[in-house]
Design goal:
Largest sheet: none
Oligomer: single chain
Radius of gyration: 19 Å
Number of domains: 2
Distance between the termini: 53 Å
Number of helices: 14
Length: 228
């Protein structure tokens, strides 16, 4: 067994396993060991530039959810080119099977988005795929890095085209639209006015936007009036 995996096994917390299992109900409970996030980050940092770390990154698929979390953190710490990161992501994404690994990966790989224009086509490829966590990865990365003046018009057009019957895609889409409303209200409101979103996504986007203190009371009243 790889040294990284052995270190993970040495640091599991069985009480955290129960907690994690409730948060991630769509994967086999036996795949969750119970590695807490601070320890996962510590292990990733310890091994990322070692031979064992390189072997671990290459040893896909991993056996446990916790290994996938450490893998995601390692990618975030790696100092590689955009092209190399695309290769790592292309290899890893087929094995991402839950929101926790997906969203941890999105938040970790900040260096991939130093050049937003360079990274954007890869996200579009992911969103245009038929795979749940490829699509969620693309949407959450847009949420994390692209809600700005330069990209808002592209995002407004894009969210109208995303159609899915998958819960974790629709939650990510709702989350994206809600944050677009918070940060770019005037540009984003058209998404709700032209009835382009699925009704569930439409209403969930409004709900999540109204939970933000950055949406004014007047805006909240108006948004609630748009619910279907």
């Amino acid at each position: 067994m790889n040294l990284v995996s052995l270190e993970i096994l040495k640091n599991i917390d069985t009480s955290y396993k129960e907690f994690s299992s409730k948060l991630i109900p769509n994967i086999d409970k036996d795949k969750i060991l119970g590695l807490r996030a601070p320890m996962a980050r510590k292990i990733a940092k310890s091994f990322v530039f070692t031979t064992s770390g390189e072997e671990f990154i290459s040893s896909l698929p991993h056996s446990y959810h916790d290994e996938n979390i450490v893998h995601a953190y390692m990618l975030g710490l790696s100092k590689c080119s955009n092209e190399e990161m695309r290769g790592y992501l292309t290899a890893f994404l087929p094995y991402v099977d839950n929101w926790a690994v997906c969203d941890s990966l999105c938040a970790s790989i900040k260096t991939f988005f130093k050049d937003l224009d360079l990274a954007y086509p890869f996200l579009i490829e992911c969103i245009n795929s038929k795979r749940t966590y490829f699509i969620r990865f693309g949407l959450v990365c847009l949420l994390d890095y692209y809600i700005n003046d330069e990209y808002i018009d592209k995002l407004v057009s894009l969210v109208k085209e995303v159609k899915s019957d998958k819960y974790y895609v629709n939650m990510a889409l709702s989350w994206l639209v809600s944050v677009m409303l918070v940060k770019q209200y005037e540009k984003t409101i058209s998404v709700l006015l032209d009835s382009s979103l699925d009704s569930w996504v439409h209403n969930k986007s409004i709900q999540k936007a109204c939970e933000s203190y950055r949406i004014t009371n007047e805006q909240k009243t108006y948004l609630k009036g748009l619910k279907r």
